[in-house]
Specification:
Blueprint lengths: L1 E4 H11 L4 E4 L5 H8 L4 E4 L3 H15 L3 E6 L5 H9 L4 E7 L7 H5 L5 E4 L6 H13 L5 E7 H4 L2 E4 L16 H13 L3 E5 L1 H6 L2 H11 L3 E3 L25 H9 L2 E5 L5 H4 L2 H5 L3 E6 L13 E4 L2 H15 L7 H13 L12 H11 L5 E4 L3 H9 L8 E3 L9 H11 L5 E5 L6 H8 L5 E6 L13 H5 L9 H7 L4 E4 L5 H15 L3 E6 L32
Parallel strand pairs: 2-3, 2-4, 4-5, 5-7, 6-7, 9-10, 9-11, 11-12, 12-13, 14-15, 14-16, 16-17, 17-19, 18-19
Antiparallel strand pairs: 1-8
GO cellular component, one term: acetolactate synthase complex
GO molecular function: flavin adenine dinucleotide binding; magnesium ion binding; tartronate-semialdehyde synthase activity; thiamine pyrophosphate binding
Family: Belongs to the TPP enzyme family.
Length: about 550
């Protein structure tokens, strides 16, 4: 064993854990900053620590690995930790304790992390950081925080890279008889649905999900966090149900179902709406890697504890042992009919531009491998309703916590994680605009599509937000094109629907040429209602479907 600087051992652990980029301020943990400069890890220094946490979040969602952010022992990254915990994102936050800007960060961070700890002895550094990665990855993933006091940062420890390695992470498998019980319920359902949540994406279980759905010919819905778990152009795709980010035909299909196999979904209120309506007339099987999630929102007919990938794999094996691959039946055809007859329009030629038209152009222009990042607000609701997604880890949405400004730094992190992919941030209000300057400085090319519904005159909103909205555009407001140009970034404003596609093509070319963020600001109409079409609660008057024949597994 060799005695090395504590920070050097920490950086060696980060490298061996697969971290290639760290986001954060450049002076919070000076010894660690110095060790990073001598490593293979890229240190992207941000303008705001919250932006660093969100960038690490985007990197983690894109790679599936633990994202890392660094900052002072203050509270600026708490919002980012909360967002990561709410959305089950593995994150490691490293804070440096000095008297200036110091706070009781460990105690403050405990409610929004899986584990928060202060390193007291330099000799503990490799082991505490190994455990931090293990905790962040284990079970339901989430953020951890390690605080480094100044004396610990400057200390030394015995360490040998050759004798160190990541700690094992348990992958819980389901009990065989529970899998059989789940298939028993599925087999007796007449109109089953699979509901794929973010846990399917996190587990990398998309292939198993596809195999199960195709073998049994079961339609598949996704939650907002589960977008990308199942290709949305597949014949078995059944849309999204919910009160905001939903499709009308998805709600209709859900309410016609009689059994829901929910995998890696946590039944957030924006998905379920009125629980009496949501639950009425259907049974639920709930699969989750976190046992305390089972029965938390409502009691399922069957709870299944386990990692989504082995659970779905064993369900596929059990299904194949019971029956040959099925052909599409009445239920699948009915869901397809709902899709054909209840899809919302997106071909509007109106001026001002209607939001659905923006997403029609986005869907038509960008290739399937594009990574989209969307934050919180009307733009996320519209994105969830109209944007099509085909592959896992290509649609990054800030779900439960909803911090404003998340999308730009998260997109920056996604681009650092997969520089070969095109990354598009679908944005609303320009919070954390300072991180655009960071992306420009570090040559991180992004396309930002800002959907601006604030600058085309007053409208009566369901709550008093007119004054806040008017701060962004119009007289006395912000000219986002000029603001971007002041940061050295190209920008263009679009106010006619026929010009959107050309602007997207221009932005992609400019981002590739300049290697900086490029803005397309699309001016859309200012509507009073956030969502388009009825929410889940509003379609409970739909007539029930005629009874269908129960699957005969002996065929």
């Amino acid at each position: 064993m060799t005695r090395v600087a504590c920070a050097e051992a920490v950086v060696a652990v980060l490298e061996s854990e697969g971290v290639d980029t760290v986001f954060g301020t450049g002076d919070a943990v000076p010894p660690l900053d110095a060790a990073l400069r001598d490593s293979s890890i890229r240190h992207v220094t941000v303008r705001h620590e919250a932006g660093g946490a969100h960038a690490a979040d985007g990197w983690a969602r894109t790679t599936g690995n633990v994202g890392v952010c660094v900052g002072a022992s203050g509270t600026n990254m708490i919002t980012g930790l909360h967002a990561a915990l709410a959305d089950s994102v593995p994150l490691l936050c490293v804070t440096g304790r000095e008297p200036f800007q110091s706070a009781g960060i460990v105690e403050i961070a405990r409610p929004v992390t899986k584990w928060a700890v202060q390193l007291r002895e330099s000799a503990q550094a490799p082991w505490v950081f190994r455990e931090a990665f293990r905790v962040a990855r284990s079970g339901r993933p989430g953020p951890v925080l390690v605080d480094l006091p100044a004396d610990v940062q400057r200390g030394t420890c015995l360490y040998d890279r050759a004798l160190d390695a990541p700690l094992p992470v348990a992958v819980p498998r389901p009990l065989p008889h529970v899998v059989r019980a789940a298939l028993d319920l599925v087999c007796t359902a007449r109109r089953p649905l699979i509901l794929a949540g973010g846990g399917v994406v996190t587990a990398g279980a998309g292939d198993e999900l596809l195999q199960l759905a195709e073998h049994l010919q079961i339609p598949v819905q996704v939650t907002l966090m589960g977008k990308g778990a199942f290709p949305e152009d597949h014949p078995l795709f059944a849309g999204l149900a919910g009160t905001e980010a939903h499709s009308r035909w998805g709600n209709a299909a859900f309410l016609r179902s009689d059994l829901v196999l929910a995998v890696g979904a946590r039944f957030a209120d924006r998905h379920t709406g009125d629980l009496d309506v949501y639950r009425k007339g259907r049974r639920f099987i709930h699969v989750d890697i976190e046992p305390t999630q089972l029965g938390r929102v409502f009691e399922p007919d069957l709870g299944v504890f386990g990692h989504a990938q082995p659970v779905l794999a064993e369900m596929v094996a059990e299904a194949r042992s019971r029956t040959a691959a099925l052909q599409p039946g009445k239920w699948v055809r009915r869901v397809g009919e709902l899709r054909r007859t209840m899809a919302r329009r997106d071909d509007f030629d109106d001026v001002p531009i209607k939001p659905p038209r923006v997403f029609r152009e986005i869907n038509g222009f960008y290739p399937r491998d594009t990574t989209f990042v969307t934050g919180t607000g009307l733009h996320q609701i519209w994105s969830g309703q109209f944007q099509t997604t085909y592959l896992p880890r290509r649609y990054l949405a800030c779900g439960q916590a909803g911090p404003p400004g998340w999308e730009v730094p998260a997109a920056m992190g996604a681009k650092c994680a997969r520089p070969e992919r095109q990354v598009v941030a679908v944005a609303g209000f320009p919070f954390l605009t300072e991180e655009v300057a960071v992306a420009a400085r570090h040559r991180i090319p992004l396309v930002i599509v800002m959907i601006n519904n604030a600058g085309l005159g007053r409208a009566e909103l369901p709550y008093d937000m007119n004054d806040a909205m008017d701060l962004h555009d119009g007289e006395g407001g912000v000219d986002h094109v000029r603001a971007m140009e002041s940061l050295g970034c190209p920008a263009r404003r679009v106010d006619r629907p026929g010009d959107i596609r050309d602007a997207l093509a221009w932005a992609s070319a400019e981002a590739a040429r300049t290697r900086v963020p490029v803005l397309v600001e699309v001016m859309v109409e200012r509507e009073a209602k956030a969502a388009t079409g009825p929410a889940l609660d509003a379609i409970k008057e739909f007539e029930p479907l005629p009874e269908l024949v129960t699957v005969d597994w002996s065929d």
